[in-house]
């Protein structure tokens, strides 16, 4: 058994030292996923595993046998961008673009976490079924993705306009 | 990274057997967020990994009204669990105060408990001396940059802190750790799992090589439904604690009838301030009493060159959290 990457079955590396990030970039030439720090501190390597956001730099590829990985290349395609990719363009959600694939993968899974009612550090009422998502709450939930260019305001705008139902109505002010 | 073999275990007995046949040099692998990082820095150099993420990831109610949490439960799953949020809010809050959402999705309960210190000299394999990494080598933190280091429980051989937020709540909640070892199954009070450095700082816990954590058990603790976790850090997210406080407080007619406290960021292990708890029980729930209780615990503090501020910070944070719990008795609320 191998792993599935963007819908395609892929063989696992023989060497268990290979990270999921290196498998994607060096093994499969899917260079959309970026290596920022290689130590869990920046979020540039964020990918989705069965819909959950994880850091591919701290993931040994062999650990993900049988799982389904989605990278930025699997979210959208040339000429058929994911709505969030389009929103990043419209709201200046990036400058150099290095953090962008990680930001977008992270945000897509973050919205699912909101729908599921996963609490965050800023959640006031842990018992509430629906979590109101203020701008601060969005920032907290995206705090695992750093942007050296400081494009955070554009990133927040892009997320809030793409997912108005999940984010607070005032979030895109 | 140095080469290693990799194998997966789906139940506890198999994991222990696989580990037993791979001694020495074998390590269990959870989410990998700490171990893989340390292997890349060659601070950890296992020759074999036994992947234990396939162990129980269930959270079930115990007969006594507590919770049994499988070792492979991911940190996010624990924080979002309905009963954790309603009965042990300090635990949900401690978890979401730690690391980042991506890391919490990967990290397991057992891995979080056994994560190693973030002392920068411990990580600096090539350039620094560290007794925890290489026993007998010396400690570059004691006379170095030690702003993040311990004010309680340290020794002349090591002044590192335990970095976990989740563990601070587990300490306050009187959790029990379930183990599976080559000698059979065993239970251990959470408070007795981590050890102080003494003159063996390389041993973070009382566990022997090959001992497997299979679950963590929380007792029924009605008091904890009214509990909080507050973490003070250099930035508002994605940073380790300078000081953190987990607290549960029961007040009747203005008197503290019961209390659970634990501190993070100040000691080599999740710190249970029993002196402070003793100074609170049976006393009026007033700020003066809270202050005296915090001071009673922190009287033993031995700050280093760069971290004297932590004594005052811990003092104020304890008082603030207790005050908040006394005032609004937030269930599921709090900081
Ligand atoms: C950038 C960054 C920031 C972070 N910030 C925070 C923070 O603010 N607060 C915080 O609390 N944490 C923080 N962390 C640490 C994070 O919480 C831990 O890395 C994580 O909890 C470890 O869990 P894991 O499952 O990935 O463990 P692993 O890395 O897989 O394992 C850790 C240790 O546990 C052992 N182990 C695993 N499972 C078992 C078992 N069942 N039985 C026996 N031994 C076992 C392993 O052998 C290893 O020694 C941060 C980490 C990073 C990278
Ligand atoms: S404080 Fe402990 S972990 Fe840090 S350098 Fe000294 S011995 Fe090593
Ligand atoms: S490259 Fe993985 S978190 Fe920075
Ligand atoms: S756009 Fe440059 S790092 Fe974010």
Could you please describe the fold and organization of this structure?
The complex is a heterodimer of chains A (173) and B (335). Chain A folds into two domains: 72 residues, Beta-grasp domain (Ubiquitin-like (UB roll)); 89 residues, [2Fe-2S]-binding domain (DNA polymerase, domain 1). Helices cover 32% and strands 10% of the residues of chain A. Chain A contains six helices and five strands; from the N terminus they run E-E-H-E-E-E-H-H-H-H-H. Chain A has a five-stranded mixed β-sheet. The termini of chain A are far apart. Among the domains of chain B are: 49 residues, Uridine Diphospho-n-acetylenolpyruvylglucosamine Reductase, domain 2 (2-Layer Sandwich); 106 residues, 2-Layer Sandwich (Enolase-like, domain 1), CATH 3.30.390.50. Chain B is globular and about 60 Å long. With 335 residues, chain B is an alpha+beta fold. Classes of the chains: A alpha+beta (173), B alpha+beta (335). At the A-B interface, strand 4, helix 4 and helix 5 of A face strand 1, helix 2, helix 3, helix 5 and helix 6 of B. Bound molecules: flavin-adenine dinucleotide, iron/sulfur cluster and FE2/S2 (inorganic) cluster (2 copies).
């Amino acid at each position: 058994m191998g792993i599935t990457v963007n819908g395609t079955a892929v063989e696992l590396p023989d060497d268990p030292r290979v990270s999921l990030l290196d498998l994607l970039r060096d093994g499969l030439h899917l260079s959309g996923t970026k290596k920022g720090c290689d130590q869990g501190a920046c979020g540039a390597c964020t990918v989705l595993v069965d819909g959950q956001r994880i850091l591919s730099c701290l993931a040994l590829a062999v650990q993900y046998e049988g799982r389904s990985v989605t990278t930025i290349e699997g979210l959208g395609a040339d000429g058929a961008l994911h709505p969030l990719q389009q929103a990043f363009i419209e709201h200046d959600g990036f400058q150099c673009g290095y953090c962008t694939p990680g930001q977008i993968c992270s945000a897509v899974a973050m919205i699912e976490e909101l729908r599921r009612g996963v609490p965050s550090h800023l959640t006031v009422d842990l018992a509430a079924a629906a979590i109101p998502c203020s701008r601060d709450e969005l920032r907290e939930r995206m705090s695992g993705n750093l942007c050296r260019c400081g494009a955070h305001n554009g990133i927040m705008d892009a997320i809030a306009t793409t997912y108005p139902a999940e984010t607070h109505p005032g979030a895109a002010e | 990274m140095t080469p290693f073999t990799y194998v997966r275990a789906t139940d506890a007995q198999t994991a222990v057997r696989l580990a037993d046949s791979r001694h020495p040099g074998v390590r269990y692998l959870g989410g990998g967020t700490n171990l893989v990082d340390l292997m890349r820095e060659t601070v950890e150099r296992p020759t074999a990994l036994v992947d234990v993420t396939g162990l129980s990831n269930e959270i079930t109610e115990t007969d006594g009204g507590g919770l049994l949490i499988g070792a492979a439960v991911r940190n996010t799953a624990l924080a979002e669990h309905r009963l954790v949020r309603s009965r042990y809010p300090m635990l949900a809050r401690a978890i979401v105060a730690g690391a980042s959402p991506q890391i919490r999705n990967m990290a397991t309960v057992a891995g979080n408990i056994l994560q190693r210190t973030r002392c920068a000299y411990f990580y600096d394999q090539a350039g620094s001396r560290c007794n925890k990494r290489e026993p007998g080598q010396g400690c570059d933190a004691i006379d170095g940059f030690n702003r993040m280091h311990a004010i309680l429980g340290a020794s002349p051989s090591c002044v590192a802190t335990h970095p976990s937020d989740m563990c601070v709540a587990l300490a306050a909640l009187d959790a029990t750790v379930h183990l599976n070892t080559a000698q059979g199954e065993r239970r251990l009070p959470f408070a007795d799992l981590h050890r102080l450095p003494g003159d063996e700082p390389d041993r973070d816990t009382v566990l022997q090589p090959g001992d497997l954590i299979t679950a963590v058990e929380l007792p029924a603790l009605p008091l904890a439904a009214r509990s909080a976790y507050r973490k003070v850090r250099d930035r508002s997210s994605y940073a380790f604690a300078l000081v953190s406080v987990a607290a549960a407080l029961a007040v009747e007619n203005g008197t503290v009838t019961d209390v659970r406290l634990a501190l993070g960021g100040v000691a080599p292990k999740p710190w249970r301030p029993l002196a402070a708890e003793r100074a609170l029980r049976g006393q009026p729930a007033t700020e003066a009493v809270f202050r005296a209780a915090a001071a009673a615990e922190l009287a033993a503090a031995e700050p280093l060159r760069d971290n004297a501020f932590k004594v005052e910070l811990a003092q104020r944070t304890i008082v603030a959290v207790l005050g908040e719990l006394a005032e609004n008795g937030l269930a599921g609320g709090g900081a």
